[in-house]
Amino acid sequence: MGVVLEKLLLITAVYGVIVIVSPKGENGNIVKFACAIGMMVFLINTAADMSFIDISGLMRTDEIKQGAAKGKEMMKTEINKEIATYIEKDISDICERYGVKSDVEIEITIEDGNAQIEKIELKGDFASQQGTGFVMNEIKNKYGVHEVIIIED
Amino acid sequence: MPVYANEMPQDFLESLPFDAGNGSVEDVENSYYHLADNVKETIVTEMKSIAAKARDILLVCGVCAAAAIINKTAEDNKGRKIIEIAGVAVLLMLCLADTEAIIFQSKGAIGKIGLFSKILLPLFAMWASCAGKPLSSVFITSGAMAYTNICCILAEKLIFIYIIAYILLKIAGEVTENEISSGIADGMKSAMLFLVKACLTGVSFYMTMSGCIVSAGDSAALKTTKAAVSILPGVGTVVAEVTESVISGAAVMRNSIGVLGAISIIYFILEPFIKCFINMVVFKVISVISASFTSEMMSVAMRTIADGYSIALGMLAAVSGGIIMAIAVSVSIFGG
Lengths: 153, 336
Prior knowledge:
By secondary structure, chain A is an alpha+beta fold. Chain A has helices at residues 2-21, 26-48, 55-58, 62-97, 132-143; strands at 103-111, 114-124, 149-152.
């Protein structure tokens, strides 16, 4: 900006001096007109610098699209997590009802238009506990899964 | 509220021009008080500075008026003309350095807004998308980003240079009584104001229209996600409750980021905006007062400088207004 302003000040000063000392009448008008054209050329040149600017670059909004996509994924993941937490708590309640002590782990995937329970894992000392069979049956019936993985401690 | 929506991103907090703590409601409230204090301090400082300048300007106008009265008895008009030119030269020496500094500061503020928008808008889009508005967030924030980029380039490369050029050309035209020069300056002023208005109208139109068009798409996207989870047996109405909880948590975060972003943008433009506004008003007042006792040329010079400030004000308002409008549209119209 500094260089442009310096040029501008110089041109304005030269222009002012020429106009003040220029002869009156037609000759003076020609000088004034020539100076005004010179000033216009300078201004247009400054504006023309703008033509080198990459307009498509200014319109590029990749970060926004990436941010929005991340937000959408985050929403899905959070819904997924919250529902998994709900199901884990529900299964824990079922275990408690049958007197079975167990850690519950569950994994759900949500793709566009489809969601499914990938795995239900029960972790505990099942050999010494009764009622594990009832728990598994209720989970299978309620959540429509074919297999509940049991991991013995 | 989900845990993920309780922590404000650290890189965003670090990019703010004020200390927002951890982005809690109290911190946002404190930032309002800081903003109000900053406004008061800037107004007081600038008023003190401009009062001294106004006194000097009026003194120069008074000396020129007195010299013109003394010279009135002379037969030719040359002496009077020289007094006027000398008066305008002294006025320019008094004012132009400060004017250039304030305009340069405005340019710097717009540059800072440009950089800040690159952090704010993608983050805002992310949380708006998470709040169940994936399409409108992309359309509105993309519009705001493209608009900010274009405005920043226009401001930095063209308008702030042309403001100085306008002041010099207009005053040169008046001093030399050259209509061509004055005409070019007036044309430049009209073109700059047209650019500012066109940018602001364009972005308002884009945001309103895109908002109307894509809000239906957002509902469809949310329904698809809800429907997908509803397929799971045994979850019943939990899906709706969980979705509401996730969306409302994200909406709170989106709104907090939006409010902090809007306050930051006001922080960036605050000082140059107040300086430009006070200078514009003072120069307009001096122009009116000086017109009553000194030559027309001096009055026009003051009015031209005031016009320069008003163009800078317009540009500052246009750049900051575009981003604040995008945030306001996202937060208020699409709700959530």
